[in-house]
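Researcher: Please generate the 3D structure of the following complex. Treat every line as part of one assembly.
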Amino acid sequence: MKAFYGDLRLGILGGGQLGRMLIQQAINYNVTIKVLDPDREAPCRRLCNEFIVGSLSDYETVYNFGKKVDMLTIEIEKVNVDALEQLEKEGVVVYPQSRIIRLIQDKGLQKQFFKENEIPTAEFQIISSAQQLKESQFPFPYIQKLRRDGYDGKGVYKVLDESYLAGAFTEPSLVERMIDFEKEIAVIVARNENGEVKTFPLVEMEFNPQANLVEFLISPSTLPFEVQQEAESIAKKIAETLNIVGLLAVEMFLDKNGQILVNELAPRPHNSGHQSIEGNVVSQFEQHLRAIFNQPLGETACLSNAIMVNVLGEAGYEGPAVYQGIEKILKCAGVYVHLYGKALTKPFRKMGHVTIIDNDREKAIEKARYVQETLKVIA
Amino acid sequence: MKAFYGDLRLGILGGGQLGRMLIQQAINYNVTIKVLDPDREAPCRRLCNEFIVGSLSDYETVYNFGKKVDMLTIEIEKVNVDALEQLEKEGVVVYPQSRIIRLIQDKGLQKQFFKENEIPTAEFQIISSAQQLKESQFPFPYIQKLRRDGYDGKGVYKVLDESYLAGAFTEPSLVERMIDFEKEIAVIVARNENGEVKTFPLVEMEFNPQANLVEFLISPSTLPFEVQQEAESIAKKIAETLNIVGLLAVEMFLDKNGQILVNELAPRPHNSGHQSIEGNVVSQFEQHLRAIFNQPLGETACLSNAIMVNVLGEAGYEGPAVYQGIEKILKCAGVYVHLYGKALTKPFRKMGHVTIIDNDREKAIEKARYVQETLKVIA
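Model: Done. Output below.
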């Protein structure tokens, strides 16, 4: 095996912000990095040894890219898995493994995996056609999710009663009981080739009930110790059952009865782990590198309270981004700005994030609200 | 003025590890960066928007490079200052200002500046020739330093008695009383255009008496509060007297009588501030960016004890670098590896650094010794 600091050529499928922050960390280890992304203006374009513009879903493109590296990883699941399988057969190391990406690409297979392995999750049914949906006796209200390619709220449809059926997806999907949840929570877990497994402490998402949007991510959680233990042990169980190598983000609901239900998996660094850059002993990006390079996993303990605020493009603005209020928020101690290198803003586009660190949790939340009110991405 | 996050083109003179870590931080602000360095394999080569190979001491090269950017900064002082002066006249912002770089390039002018401004420093005399050195009545033993181009111990000669005079430098130099110091200490201070000034807490260098080398940098200092206050106020006074915009590293001696004497200045990020990446609320690199972009300076308080160990090429090895022991040190919690992207090692070449964070100071020092014994750069 080539040494990870230099000789080894790491390919990243996807050149977005997750790849960008992964590279920022990989610089510390001299990792030689090639990136494939369809967008020639992708956030990683200037930060790697080679940036290749090409489709992530095209077999030939992914295969040819993979032949030029020793190890492949992803920062987005929507990639051509057939090419990855072939590359694995030909000796390219693919972490996370192609079979895991294939499983996670399909929300139907993901749910079946949960069921088979007794991972708690909302009741569901696999639906192959509009006809089958109508015939299903699944109790209203429920959520319909496309099996493939859903992303950031896309591919999700609420079926409150029979009258909603007309607008439902006709593609392969699954229907799922609507969870009246108390809280959205997440655990990031890592596993290396040696089988070492480590979780990051549980984080909570704070909802804005008016906008029905995740406003903040708060780390660490103040939920009861048993809930934290339970969530972390579910994440560990999934990582071990999958035998994943790399990072796995496990998004969960805590329902009103205090039961944890797994919502979705992402086999890569994830929005719910950004606060770890400043808030934990190692960041999720460092941990992903350690996992895929089969290095000892890092200590994940929280250093402080950390709140992560997504910086989204303001509604009504489209064009070259202007970051209004940045000077004001830099006046606050413990405020860390991460812009993603996207030249153009559009409504709700993820343009960056800000992490707020404070030993006083209430103060951290107060600062986070100030950041959210003050920093606006306009054009 | 263009916005620093994107429109503004920042040029960095020098593409070494200091530039590399500055870029790692600047990524968070989308800064458009061009780098000039004579070495086509310099650490920054893959991390900037444009990397230009060229001499830093050649007027035309520096001038032409500067004409393509809106703002220039440095990561090494040895640059053509005449070109910077001309660029300033033509409207390019140069931070730190060319007059400060000119002053600091010349150890004779530096010492005179200290004297004129009542900054405590070791007694000295400016020497222009071998003849003048012989005729000087400067009391033995003393140190002779070349006025220009000394670096990392080069350009320094000990004159213990008359018999040493034969080997002395004949170029313009200064002679300086040999300080019997208790400790080498340093303060990094930043000043922005608005005149805001902030110091980082005092750090100490731990000497290995056998090797006569700085082994560790320890942050924060545990010297008496008055010493810390005094050192920080000296650093502030220098930054304010110079009206510098940017970062200034102030290296000092604490002598056996408890007196602080300023040794040397560096108007840029500095080896004595690397621990700030993990050990302080903001890092020296973030602070330098905030200073030159006239943003509010960041909070500099220490988050924890931090020890910085330089990772030097092992004596006796030259060639493609191998980092022996890296897996072992990654097993320790709170150990942060920073490699500088140099393909080839040679004896004592700075190949990287490791920062160790621990709330228990003794434990941090123990871990630092372990890192130093364990991590070896061989070929």
